[in-house]
Amino acid sequence: MSTDNALQSLNNFLADDQLNKEQILALIELAINIKQHPSDYSQALAGKSVAMIFEKPSLRTHVSFDMGINKLGGHSLYLGQQNGKLGERERVSDYAKNLSCFADLIVARVFSHDSIQGLAEHASIPVINALCDVYHPCQALADFVTLAETYPDLSQVKLAYVGDGNNVSNSLMIMAAILGVDFTLVSPEGHDAQADIIEKTKQLAQESGSKLHLTNDINAIGKQDVIYTDTWISMGDEDASKKAEILAKFAPYQVNHALMAKAEATMLLHCQPAHLEEEITTELFDSELSKVFQQAENRMWAQNAVLVTLLVN
After folding, report:
1. Is the pTM of this model over 0.70?
2. Which residue, of 141, 150, 197, 280, has the fewest CB within 10 Å?
3. Annotated catalytic, 299?
């Protein structure tokens, strides 16, 4: 199946489980092509405008979308927290319909997946989920672009995520299962992935033939090619009274050189921002095993592939 044919049916980019293997591989291929030949796409979004809704603060997501859109010849408009939470100042449906009058596409980084679904339901233009409480598909796509640059056959990769079961691990495990990548989730008891995401992933893994391993035992991580981690304290949850308790509970799950050696892993990924000396050591984060800045750059190229697909193809 050609890249164009695989992506023709893509109308929004909302959640990893709404994509199939051919679509994900086609997006990865397109992202790498845009990265290698940016001048070929410098006018791909000429005359197009993108409205970017940000309920949550951001560095990489904001910059990668804004500059990525510019590199494609398009225009972006940032709508920040001053506009209030979606659904409070005005209905999500009204927000979506109004933006559809002016923009060609909506990018939304929001607190609730319900907001993403509402935007997609009521907008007459494509919607991209730039993060919600359940999924982070832009991050996962960029992560697999990064893996594809090192591993020609993704189905041979063994990927482990160590830490809190959250939106990042949800998207990673779903995309891994769709692609046929063996995935291990290591998290403290009580911080596992949500049950419905686990069930979806098990079904997808069964279909692709990949293995899903869930454990609370850091010593059961097994042999891995790549270890991925994320902050233990999610953005907006920095309650000082709970932080000490969380840090103590998660301490055995710190990703460091010893854990990399135990798993025989040769690549470290982190979606950032990193809380150094908490979920990861400074020494490992800054080491040659770390691909975190390649990973961050690939946010732009992966998102550009989605933008081109939704607005051009």
Report:
1. yes
2. 150
3. yes
